[in-house]
Amino acid sequence: MGRYKLQASRAEEPFLLVVFPGSAMQAKTILLVEDQIDFSAVQRANLERHGYHVLAVEDGLEAVRYAREHHPHVILMDLSLPSLDGLSATRELKRDPETSAIPVILLTAHAYGSVGRRAREAGCASFIPKPCEPRRVLEEVRELIGPAEEPVQTAIPDNRG
Q1: Please, which residues have CB within 8 angstroms of residue 111's CB and are 6 or more apart in sequence?
Q2: pLDDT tens digits for the chain (161 residues)?
Q3: Residue spans per domain, the chain
Q4: Is the whole model's pTM more than 0.85, yes or no?
């Protein structure tokens, strides 16, 4: 059992964060933002097969709403989307303190010119040119957020004085 002492942000009692070996695991969530149904289905199936929980939407406005509502661990964002393009959606998410820390991986078939620079300027953690193998997307996700599951953590009052 691991014990980690946490100090509450306000003048509250300190808590111990307890993680029991073999305890329940919780799948990390990925928000997949892609309007190409075939590409989305392949990527989603691969990520779910490797244990991730995947939410999928098809446009930039939905992406912003879902990110604010569900707080995914990472966002896979297509560049060319209906209603709001991927870079504009990323900029909006990065301006919001509630979503600014969520890493965004830009997926684009327009991997020429200044796309890499524009992706970085918008706040993307990386970008992957399409077409791409599902294995490549999985590797990038794992590099940014680690394995699909994490232990469920329980905070209990630290009554040890």
Answers
A1: 127, 129, 130
A2: 333 333 344 445 555 555 555 556 688 999 999 999 999 999 999 999 999 999 999 999 999 999 999 999 999 999 999 999 999 999 999 999 999 999 999 999 887 778 888 999 999 999 899 999 999 999 999 999 999 987 665 555 556 55
A3: 1-24+150-161, 29-145
A4: no
Range 29-145: architecture per CATH: 3-Layer(aba) Sandwich (3.40)
DSSP code at position 77: E
In the numeric block, which tokens belong to residue 46?
């691969």
Amino acid at the residue 78: D
Separation CA 91–CA 88 (nearest Å): 5
- CA atoms of 66 and 57, how far apart (whole Å): 8
Q: What gap in Å lies between CA 34 and CA 57, rounded to an integer?
A: 6
Single out the residue of 27, 35, 32, 59 nearest to residue 43, CA to CA.
32
